[in-house]
Amino acid sequence: MDELKELGQQLLLEAETGLLSSAPNAPANGWHDPEFELPYSRKTWSDIEFLLTRRWFRNISVVRDYPAQTRVEYGNKNMPLHLLINAIYCLYSKKRDLSDLQKELEQAIGAVVRLPVLSYPRLLHRASTFKRCTDPRDKIYGTVSVAPRKLAASISLDYDDSNTEGNVYASAMLAHAKITQRFELFHNCFFAEDIMSDDPSWVPNFWSEMPGETYIPAQFAAFSSRAHFTVINREKTPPNVNPKSDILRVLGLRFAEVSRISTPLPAWTYRWGAIRRVREWQPDDIDRVYSPTNEPMRKAYALTLNCNITKEREPDWMLTSTTAWVDQDFGEQALFGRYSATSSTSEIRSDVSDAVQCCGDRLFFRTNEGYIGLGPSNTQAGDIIAVSLGCSTPLALRPSSRGPDHYTVIGECFIYGIQDGNLLLGPLPQPWTGIAAWAAGDRRILSFLNTETQGVSAEDLRLCDDDLDGWERTTKLLDGDDLINYDFFRNKETGELINYDPRLEPEKLEKKGVKLEWFSLV
Length: 522
What we know:
The protein is α+β, with helices and mostly antiparallel strands and 522 residues long. The protein contains 15 helices and 21 strands. Strand 3 and strand 4 form a beta hairpin. Helix 4 packs across helix 5. It is globular, with a radius of gyration of 23 Å.
């Protein structure tokens, strides 16, 4: 407690952005810097881990707003809660390998850190995913007090036995989609034989910890289009029982069919074992050309394994460069190409660890159209890959016996070459490339980098200003109800504000030759 209190005193945490800085009276030691290694002994780190594993941090009942004067007591020690928050957030942001503490830090972050601009999906990940509760409905109900204003107002606490966890999760999913006009919770949709087996496949499974372990970053596959969807309830609902959502009809684009799959990498596989398993995925044509982008297959495969988490893609973070990642000059830790025998003794590189985490509970697949990607572990040949308008990631869908346009959601995918709206608008012109720029509330927004001049723009050269029809791009102060991958436009005459690009509406996309269709998700 003394060390955490001292650390918290050195820092200021900006409530709106989550950025750390040195406190005005702090020594000039740079403890807030993510690159700075804290001068802690092995015993101190052990004590911190012991504290963070206390049951208090793991219960969803602790997720609430606390008064500013709240103090934390542990044994005969105590400290102001805001200093503990500063310390925990500092540890969480450190670049040094704290993999042994990562889950504990995420638990603590979700328990006590409150950022008003944090989007709802990020809030759920921090405050709910790894929290314990006896009633599955509390994965949603337990976070209502700290949820964004509009979303919280749309959730009514109902513990009647007829209101199942599936109903609660579906209602939260649809409420969030209506508020944001995006699908940002498909990340939690995946095949699982558990308590939700009777619910539609499009209903997020917030009860499972699995999505928290297998993060896929934003691909901006549908760019800043808005979601178009309708919901059909089950026809036969008993009297006095809440209607149960059945079919979610979404508008999108089908672009590929899975042709071949690898052996899946089981979730939570020991890191060295995961490295060996991923090596088995290496394609035979790795030295050829990747036809969808006309780039080397080696590059496409490398950036598939780590979901394009590179310095060039996310320049606001200290990450490995694309060149270094493609080269895989990592000796015994290389995921493909030349590598020495693994000794399983050295510390695993953070970029390699992140990549095998992306691959966890997933498999490598190829499509008839030449694409490669990572898909859910139960992806099969014959599954189709589609992008829904308003959804950043493509989805693997399986044809259903319920009808010709009916599909079961298998889960989200990473596919190299479809990022940044390429399926809707075609590839970016040279020398431009898309970057995932950091924004308030741990968001990522798509910006465009001129690789010759290094200039960055929010404007996409594939879209024409003349097609805005009275709209202009604008900005606003963000709050928790705003989407993760935001974009705002204002009507010059009426002042109306919208959170999507009007040039990406269905009728305009179809004029560009985009073949949209309705998918009935069951």
